[in-house]
Write a structure and sequence with these properties.
Radius of gyration: 20 Å
Distance between the termini: 39 Å
Number of strands: 15
Structural class: alpha+beta
Number of helices: 6
Largest sheet: 9 strands, mixed
Helix content: 10-25%
Strand content: 25-35%
Length: about 250
């Protein structure tokens, strides 16, 4: 925002990387946010000089240049910047970035692959917002095998145990061996453990799950546990949706 131009509190929190605007509104309503020592209310506006606290921790607008980082997340790490239970978290892998960055979305502990970090709240919101439908491509190894009926269910959507139905996915068989199949799955939504739940619902065990592409950017040969800055072209390519599905 401009130097002293007031903006809505939920937008400020979003741009600081605290949460999405909708989640920030919930935090304001439940009393987690204070501005200049007073409980915040919806409709509050703030400037950079205001003192904003979330759950007792000061929130300050990022003033350095925006950073966009790609990490090849290993298995065994949880997607959070800190963990009260002492588990390994992805913050350890980007501690040498030189800026405070945070992950956009998540991969569960047992999954690996491409994870994007940034200090640009507006960019993070664009990637996360459902209306932008940023596609993500995964390589998924399942057991024991897969039949045509199971493929159709994955592609048309599956009703899960909680009653929700998954969005249609694109699924391609890449490798088919005895008791092992490697699939390419293309999703436009990123609900928690969605691929694992989809496969479990049709009797498949996920042996390995790796995200290899977000939007128009592939992870390529980046080594497990390593990170690199995205180029300006790649940052734009992530948001360049929709893809030409006929070419996949």
């Amino acid at each position: 925002m401009a130097k002293n131009e007031p903006i809505r509190l939920q937008k400020f929190l979003s741009q600081c990387g605290v949460a999405s605007r909708r989640k920030a509104e919930e935090m304001i309503l439940n009393g987690s946010v204070r501005v200049n020592g007073k409980p915040a209310v919806l409709g509050d506006k703030v400037t950079p000089s205001d003192k904003v606290y979330v759950k007792g921790k000061r929130v300050v607008m990022q003033t350095s240049s925006p950073r966009y980082i790609m990490l090849n997340k290993p298995r065994g790490f949880i997607t959070t910047m800190n963990d009260e239970r002492g588990r390994k978290c992805v913050a350890e892998l980007v501690s040498d970035v030189g800026e405070r960055v945070y992950p956009i979305g998540r991969l569960d502990k047992d999954s690996e692959g491409m994870l994007i970090f940034t200090n640009d709240g507006a960019f993070a919101n664009k990637v996360m917002h459902p209306r932008n439908s940023i596609y993500k491509i995964y390589r998924v190894t399942v057991r024991p095998s897969i039949n045509e009926d199971q493929l159709v269910k994955l592609e048309t959507g599956i009703t899960l145990d909680d009653g929700t139905k998954t969005a249609p996915a694109q699924v391609h068989v890449l490798v088919e061996q005895e008791n092992r199949v490697v699939l390419e799955m293309i999703l436009h939504e990123g609900k928690n453990r969605e691929i694992r739940k989809m496969c479990e619902a049709i009797g498949l065990e996920v042996a390995k799950l790796k995200r290899v592409q977000i939007g128009g950017v592939k992870m390529g040969m980046l080594k497990t546990g390593d990170w690199r800055d995205l180029t300006e072209k790649e940052v734009k390519a992530i948001l360049a949706n929709p893809m030409d599905k006929s070419k996949i």
